[in-house]
């Protein structure tokens, strides 16, 4: 704090001395130029023609041209910042419009019944575990309701409801270590179990030992007690090698929808799921 006070006092002393010199020295072109430059540097808001005229009286033309150029540069920099801000706002609006268009298309085509909700809270320390949405039991949401979302034009599984209050609910994500869902591989019909690992990739367990399914798509199974069948879960990235005595193999599974990136979700009503 003492150091800051000393610096402030030194700055005041400097400007006081400078002002005294301006009073003592004859008001020739050099002094007028110095006054104009100091005023322009000290008060950067001096941009109008009137303000420039007031501080530039008697200043040589070359110095005045320099001040005018700097003033124009300041205005251009401000305009560039404003343009960048407007561009960012436009991009955000276009992205929001794209998501809403996907939601509108989903509402028209989907036979699933439920409600849309927005993600309103995430825990940074448990990003792949859960998030809160802005709908609760007042909107008909119940425990164990399935949750899906749209990303890159595809509908994919996000998780299930594990807590409900009147106006909010907590969703357990498919990437959480406590999450699992029975599933099947579309191209082969094999049943398996998709499990969260606390990170972006899921683990696909209980595949037959002869499975070579890289690139295969995985969907929720009819044997699931929580989710209706046919919801896309993810795509197989690679199958892990297995030991001689293992009766099954596992694989890495890339989720169709990245739960950590969704902004809106569709919560399927439990009564409708049970009717599937």
Distance linking N and C termini: 70 Å
Q: Proportion of β residues?
A: 25-35%
Helix run count: 5
Parts with pLDDT < 50 across at least 5 consecutive residues: 45-50, 272-276
Name of the CATH architecture of the largest domain: Beta Barrel
The CATH superfamily of the largest domain is: Rod shape-determining protein MreC, domain 1
Structural class estimated from helices and strands: alpha+beta
Shape: elongated
Q: How many distinct folded domains? A: 2
Number of strands: 12
**Average pLDDT metric:** 75
> What is the succession of H and E elements?
HHHHEEEEEEEEEEEEH
Identify the strand order in the major beta sheet. 1-2-5-4-3-12
Major sheet details: 6 strands, antiparallel, barrel
Q: Quick one: CATH class of the largest domain?
A: Mainly Beta
Topology of this structure?
Blueprint: H1 2-24, H2 29-42, H3 49-55, H4 61-109, E1 114-122, E2 130-133, E3 146-151, E4 154-164, E5 169-173, E6 180-185, E7 191-195, E8 202-207, E9 217-220, E10 232-239, E11 249-255, E12 264-268, H5 270-274
Antiparallel strand pairs: 1-2, 1-12, 2-5, 3-4, 3-12, 4-5, 6-7, 6-9, 7-8, 8-11, 9-10, 10-11
């Amino acid at each position: 704090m003492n150091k800051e006070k000393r610096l402030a006092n030194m700055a005041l002393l400097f400007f006081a001395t400078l002002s005294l010199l301006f009073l003592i020295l004859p008001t020739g072109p050099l002094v007028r130029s110095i006054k104009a430059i100091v005023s322009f540097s000290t008060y950067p808001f001096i941009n109008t023609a009137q303000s420039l005229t007031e501080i530039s009286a008697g200043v040589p033309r070359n110095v005045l041209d320099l001040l005018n150029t700097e003033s124009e540069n300041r205005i251009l920099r401000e305009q560039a910042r404003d343009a960048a801000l407007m561009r960012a706002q436009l991009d955000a609006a276009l992205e929001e419009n794209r998501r809403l268009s996907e939601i509108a298309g989903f509402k028209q085509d989907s036979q699933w019944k439920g409600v849309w909700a927005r993600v309103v809270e995430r825990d940074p320390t448990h990003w792949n575990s859960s998030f809160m949405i802005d709908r609760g039991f007042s909107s008909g949401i119940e425990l164990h309701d399935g949750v899906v979302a749209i990303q890159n034009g595809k509908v994919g599984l996000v998780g299930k409801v594990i807590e409900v209050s009147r106006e909010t609910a907590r969703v357990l994500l498919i990437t959480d270590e406590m999450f699992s869902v029975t599933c099947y591989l579309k191209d082969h019909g094999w049943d398996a179990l998709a499990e969260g690992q606390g990170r972006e990739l899921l683990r696909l367990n209980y595949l037959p030992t002869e499975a070579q399914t890289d690139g295969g798509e995985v969907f929720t199974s009819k044997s699931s007690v929580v989710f209706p069948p046919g919801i896309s879960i993810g795509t197989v990235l690679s199958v892990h090698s297995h030991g001689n005595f293992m009766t099954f193999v596992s694989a890495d599974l890339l989720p169709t929808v990245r739960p950590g990136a969704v902004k809106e979700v569709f919560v399927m009503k439990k009564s409708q799921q049970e009717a599937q």
